[in-house]
Specification:
Low-confidence stretches of chain B: none
Largest interface: A-B, 29 and 31 residues
Distance between the termini of chain A: 33 Å
CATH architecture of the largest domain in chain B: 3-Layer(aba) Sandwich
Structural class of chain A: alpha+beta
Order of helices and strands of chain A: HHHHEEEEHHHHHHHHH
Strand order of the largest sheet of chain A: 1-2-3-4
Number of helices of chain B: 12
CATH superfamily of the largest domain in chain B: P-loop containing nucleotide triphosphate hydrolases
Number of strands of chain B: 13
Distance between the termini of chain B: 40 Å
Largest sheet of chain A: 4 strands, antiparallel
Order of helices and strands of chain B: EEEHEHEHHHEHEHEEHEHEEHEHH
Oligomer: heterodimer
Radius of gyration of chain A: 26 Å
Number of domains of chain B: 2
Radius of gyration of chain B: 23 Å
Helix content of chain A: 55-70%
Amino acid sequence: MGKWISQVQTVIGLEIRKTFFSRRGLWVYLLAFAPALLWFVHSLDAIREQARWRELANQEKKVSSAALRSITEGMTKEEVEAKLGEPYAKMARVTRRGDEISSYRYTDGESDVILVMFNGKIGNVIRAEPFTISRDSLNFATVFQFFYLRFAIFFGCVGIFTNLFRAEMLEKSLHFYLLSPIRREVLLVGKYLAGLIATVTIFTVGTALQLLAVAWHFQADELNQYLANGGWGEVGAYLGVTALACLGYGSVFLTAGMVFRNPIIPAVVVLQWELANLFLPGFLKKISVIFYLQSLCPVVAQPDQDIPIPLRILSSAAEPVGAVAAITGLAIVTLAVLAFAANQARKLEINYSTD
Amino acid sequence: MSDQITFDNVSRFYGEVLGVNRVTLSIPPGITSLVGPNGSGKTTLMNLITGLVRPTAGEIRVLGISPNDPERLFHLTGYSTQFDSFPRGMTGTELVSSYLRLAGHSDVEARRIANASIERVGLAGAADRKVAGYSKGMRQRIKLAQAIAHNPRVLVLDEPLNGLDPLVRAETLGLFRQFASEGRHVIVSSHVLHEVDLFSDQVILLSSGYVVAEGQIRAVRGEIREFPMQVAIRCDKPAALAAQVFAQDSVVEARLHPDGHGLLIRTRDADRFYKLMNQIALSGIEIETVAPADDSVNSVYEYLVGNEEATR
């Protein structure tokens, strides 16, 4: 056993540079860190908007929140001005057909309301939600579950884990390992752990950066209060789910890279399977990674109701199971896939000419 | 533990393409050459010995160990493949020491043994350079260094002399002989038939996936009855010698050399012929040399498989 551990360490040492710094894998970093960049942009926007609202408030151009809430569609321009006074910004234009379209902007110091008027009557009230932790928490949950888990980590694992065996077959260098006094199962574990170290590091750092970026524009006391009331648990849950996603998807794509000449095909099949999870019967749902991951996510994501129905259906959440059951289920799926991979590794042959 | 490498009715097909078929062999220690043209099954046999490919049928044992057990097999076996690719970014020392670390050596010990092995193949000056920048000959040597580093009992070498200059070639052959003299197996593949004569204790002749002959090359030659042995003799009275050897019914042809000092004999019984030569030497004909003329691997292969394949 001690010898196997030493061999696993040696394989990890040999693989780790390749998994972290593969030229073919630079796009994995883009997938991992691009969402953090978007959240930073969001925070910058929030800071700018909040400063603008404060500035308007200082200029006494804000109205009361209650008065803003009383505005409804169908009210006339005059009624609005009677209730709210002059807007801080307004715009008007006449269409070719002679209709007048105008917009009035008001603020209560925390958010904006835009009143869109057609021929002097309100046709649409657009309320910009205030930047609150609960709102950003829900937005983060949505992006995390429907983009980061299902696409970024998924394809990141495709990029790193499928290459652990397949890239060496293509480069005709896998025989280095297969001619060593090491059990194929030990080699598999070493490579898997090397991939896991890389993906867990890259994607948990990615998740942590996203959380930092989201939190950046909130006041310290507001943030501390949130963290003290279960916020740290949510942060831990997101980091844990990220790591578990790498664990589960890693096992699937390590196996795919060993069994299939073109791992993109199984990757697309697995992606379809994961996306179709909602429609599967209960026992089939459990043969997936996303089922367990979504159960462990701390906030139930609510996709935008304006998105097309087919997309909304695809992004629906699976029925959650308890944390212990989810982790156990994921571990069972991972171990079953790795056991299959170990069996394939034992039968693995070098036939570079056909690879 | 057995000291033989055995193939028991082993076949290997790549889809519908034949790799090797119904091979039954028992390879003793010493230098064994796998001989045959490209595509004859040499590399398949080596890959079967080392478990890189699995037999479609039959069983292989290497000193009693199954090739399906790499953990035990590669403590005893080193394989220098024909593949010229290496894990990316490694220096010569890193390549060999990584292999040794997988074999269970500590980092320091692995580096020490790796450097000794690299020095043994005459590559010490390039040990710290990236393998990717090595020439063909240097790559051959670093593969050999890796194969011998853990002091294996079985050394399997696929075309190991390709790309080596004459001096290194001679040194490498010396290394093979040393390994063989220590009672180890050195299994070498070559499609250069005349080269094999220089160093082989025994040969395995392959053609289109079949073993057509195996054993010591002279013994194999002796068994080819339909082609009488050729013996070249240099002497002072070739005509008189020709008359005497024709008295023996196994001699089927005697041809005088144009320079008048030699004779080429074809005989169906070489042993009887050599005994006769001893008697003739005492009868007053001065015999300078007696040498077999067609017991080279090339000749044997030509007789067994045909001229076309032997010279391919």
